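Researcher: First entry.
Model:
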Amino acid sequence: MSENGAPQRRFRNRQDAGRMLAERLAEYAGREDVLVLALPRGGVPVGLELSRALEAPLDVFLVRKLGLPGQEELAMGAIASGGARVLNDDLVATLGLSSEVIDAVAEREQVELERRERVYRGDRPAPEVRDRTVILVDDGLATGSSMRAAVEAVRQRHPRRIVVAVPAAPRQTCDELRQQVDELVVLRTPHPFYAVGAWYEDFSEVSDDEVRAMLAGEEGPVLEGDLVVPDGARAVVLFAHGSGSSRLSPRNRFVAGVLQEAGLATYLVDLLTEEEEEADRLSGHLRFDVQLLARRLGGAMETLSRDPRTGKLPLGLFGASTGAAAALVVAAERPDAVRAVVSRGGRPDLAAEALDRVRCPTLLLVGARDEVVIDLNREAMARMSAPVELEIVPDATHLFPEPGALERVAELARDWFDRYVA
């Protein structure tokens, strides 16, 4: 809730939050002295959007929380690049923590901080801060100890101005931090605050590889996709394929054709690169990396949101095999964006705990002779509180090659999306 009691909208994802921050910081756009420093890992996608909008360079600034031994989620302080250390003096005094305990934790976290600096920056030197306007960015603050450590460390390098910009933070943390910086920009100060992730629809973890890609000016691998938008399209359906079932699969293209005839746009995109597909054929490990597939699917949703032909269309997801699990993970993380899900011969059970959080209508399609997958779908269905139906296609096996089977799948999917999405 806001201070006047009105509900505050959650951010769709970190990119959405970064774009909103950029609107508030428009006065810094185009200035040569501005530098955006993001706290990894969650702050980097926020900082990337901000740096693009302001036309300012982006780099990372490393901070490590000092967790209380045995209760690591409780921060007794933080360290940052350059040797700065900030302690929660009240907590240290209350618990009577010795300098030996604090130093031991700090030494361990210093090793990890230096490792991450090498991972993210490689041989590149840290950017020059002296006499520049530094905008420190994270995806949100809780206690603020990490950001205070970053501010202290940057201050030691003599910048002209320090601006802290975050999407969400509790009021008390803002009040404390405002005394330490030249400017504080916070988009949401809800009360009660709960946690940073509570104010995002999609708060999926950011990997080290993704941080490296963003710092290198990349957004991840370039994925192949085919978008078809019929005249007067009423909605768009994004296909999530499992490994070995690409956008060129005749089964997927047949279903997409039926949806297009019904006035639905379709986007068939490969969630793995050609190199990853080849590696997966040998090891089989990527096809079951549901979180990776879900992140890629989320990226495809961002592509659709930026396309003027599909940006305002309601969205449904069609998942096949392990792609169905990825579709359900995304639906759980972004309930306001995904209107409905259809799974064809899918493995919804691999969505695990995300099943409990799916809210959109979900249709599970399985062949009658695909007995193992039927059982797995029933197990997944039992965990879901969302409107969910299991449709068993008579005489069909896993890939629905039997006469009329795939046609039935396409008809059921079309009717489901017509009912809940279009």
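Researcher: Second entry.
Model:
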Amino acid sequence: MKRLLTLAMAGAAVTIGLAACSDTVPNYSSLAPQKVTFIATLTGANEVPAVTTTGAGTAELIREDSTSILYTIVTTARTDSVTMVHIHAGPAGANGPIMLWFFPTDLARAPGNGSGFAANLNGTVRVSRITRSGAFFVAPYTWDSLMTRMGNGTAYINLHTRRNPGGELRGQVLPGR
């Protein structure tokens, strides 16, 4: 009986050893954080009240993981003298308070004449990251409130210019592709 038990244990050890040496690699991709993209189409018609402008733009925000968002804000038509860009709390058709500043900040100014303006811009306004711990949120807003509002479409990006200080381009942040 001892001999049979010893043979059974040896067989089990060989089976486990062979399984460990197989070429099959477990798929852990389901453990990786899923990136989520949000898009805002920036137009003067989206402003409240609407403004007439030849400017237009887009913003793409990619939530890379639970602590950072990569964002790009570009103008797709000439926009003159950008003075501020930020994200607000509020649904389409209504104005709301600022949640987070994109431009200007003390850490990064948009390209331009050094005065905080991005003059005669047709292209990239800002490419950067928002991080849970490093973002300049305006109280009472936080990372979690930003995530909630972006997810339910109650956040918008507003781009201000010298010509339209109340806002020239605006777009709701909506889940994208």
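Model: Note on the second entry: The mean pLDDT is 78.
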